[in-house]
Amino acid sequence: MKLSDAMGPTSKLKQYWRWLGICTVIALLQACATAVPVAASDPRDPFENMNRKVTGFNDVVDAAVLKPVAQTYVQIVPGFVRTGVRNFFGNLSDVWSLANNAAQLKFKATGDTALRVGINTFVGFGGLLDIASDLGVERHRSDFGLTLGHWGVQTGPYIVLPLLGPSTVRDAVALTIDRQGDLSRQSASSLKRDTALALKLVDTRESLLKILDALKEASLDPYTFTRDAYLQKRRNDQFDGNPPMQGNYDDPDEAQDVGPLPAK
């Protein structure tokens, strides 16, 4: 499959977003309708049966479309170009991280992120070069889901979204705002927006090629490994790598959110 075929015309990308929205709504409605908490093997994952089915669907789509496209992307696009693409989208995401770090009153993270955006935008040719990282300026990724968590909104159950993968109820709701904050979608031209979306999807999948293959080979149950890793990472992100201890810490299943962080 050629990369150009995968990107397709604007109409195909619009159909993709409609299908994604429909699948997400169906998944969430099914989750609410079929929840049986007492049957869950992990209290954080009461919809495990449904989540495993959605994961299976995602794996089929990935094997048939996303992975081959990403592999083709690696084969036909030089490494320095792929790095530039990743840096560019990373710089755009830093702008949204800046807004969320500020909303969480994380002053150091806000300052570092503002410095990163300024350096990479004006010195790194619009973000194609990641000069800020070379200078040791730390990246503080954030999004609206973490902002909600900072101000006390609990994560809710773990869910797997069609095509998008691991999430929680809180993070899934926040995706609507995150999408509005994505600068790659702010162009007046629908063709440019959809092209940026396609390129971003391919770049993201390419970055996961080795990781996902290694995960499937090393894990007896990739589903539970992915779930636990996702929830742990989101918790660490919310508390800047230092989540407070609460409950029975010999059993990670009992870890719970403890509310908003103090202002920094």
Task: Explain the overall architecture.
- This protein has about 260 residues and is mostly helical.
- The protein has one domain.
- The chain is about 65% helix and about 5% strand.
- The protein is built from eleven helices and two strands.
- The chain has helices spanning about 5, 10-35, 50-75, 80-105, 105-120, 130-135, 145-150, 170-180, 190-205, 210-220, 220-240; strands spanning about 160, 165-170.
- A two-stranded antiparallel sheet has the order 1-2.
- Strand 1 and strand 2 form a beta hairpin.
- Helix 3 (about 50-75) crosses helix 9, helix 4 runs antiparallel to helix 5 (about 105-120) and helix 4 (about 80-105) packs across helix 9 (about 190-205).
- The longest helix is centred in the N-terminal third of the chain and has 29 residues, at about 50-75.
- It is globular, with a radius of gyration of 19 Å.
Fold blueprint:
Layout: H1 3-7, H2 10-34, H3 48-76, H4 79-103, H5 107-122, H6 131-134, H7 144-150, E1 158-161, E2 165-168, H8 169-180, H9 190-207, H10 209-218, H11 222-238
Antiparallel strand pairs: 1-2
Short recap of the structure:
The protein has helices spanning 3-7, 10-34, 48-76, 79-103, 107-122, 131-134, 144-150, 169-180, 190-207, 209-218, 222-238, and strands at residues 158-161, 165-168. The chain is mainly alpha-helical and 264 residues long. The termini are far apart.
